[in-house]
């Protein structure tokens, strides 16, 4: 057996039978099953005066492994105004984040953020607003993001 520096074997002496029996060119799915964000949707409603009500709805579904592990997850949204170079952050609901434990039925989350027309109107002309839902595993720190479609607000 070939050895690497320090006496570490270059290849394992053990070959699992399921890998050895796999057809040539077979792709192995090494991805770890994970919870996922679904159906992220943004609705914008003109509120009183110069205020806008931005409501984001999204779902979170879990795998059996998530449910068994009962890891705590954190979820929140950002609201952005799309620009040519860098998108402007209008608001975040991170201070109102939901902390969740996995369950068999998907979670359905709704968060509403109020923003002024001045915060939304960062340039001349129509504004394209979108939301980004964020879902973070509190044990590993890994997170997932999913954006909504852009919603146009006429100035």
Description of the structure:
This protein is mainly beta and 155 residues long. The chain has one domain (34-153): Sandwich (Immunoglobulin-like). 9% of the residues lie in helices and 46% in strands. It has 3 helices and 11 strands, in the order ββαββαββββαβββ. It has helices at residues 17-20, 64-69, 117-120; strands spanning 3-4, 8-9, 36-46, 51-61, 73-81, 88-92, 98-100, 107-116, 127-137, 143-147, 151-153. The strands form 3 sheets. Strands 5, 6, 7, 9, 10 and 11 form a 6-stranded antiparallel sheet that branches. The radius of gyration is 23 Å and the shape is elongated.
β-strand percent reads over 45%
Radius of gyration using CA atoms only? 23 Å
Q: Globular, elongated, flat, extended or rod-shaped: what is the shape? A: elongated
Q: Which stretches of 5+ consecutive residues score pLDDT under 50?
A: 1-23, 26-31
> In CATH's first tier, which class applies?
Mainly Beta
Distance between the termini: 72 Å
Instruction: State the domain count.
Output: 1
Q: Roughly what percent helix?
A: under 10%
Per DSSP, the total helix count is 3
Please provide the count of β strands: 11
Mind describing the biggest β-sheet? Answer: 6 strands, antiparallel
Element-level helix/strand string: EEHEEHEEEEHEEE
Can you tag this structure with a few keywords?
155 residues; mainly beta; Immunoglobulin-like; 6-stranded antiparallel sheet; disordered N terminus
Please sum up the structure shown.
With 155 residues, the protein is mainly beta. Helices cover 9% and strands 46% of the residues. Strands 5, 6, 7, 9, 10 and 11 form a six-stranded antiparallel beta sheet that branches. Strands 3-4-8 form a three-stranded antiparallel beta sheet.
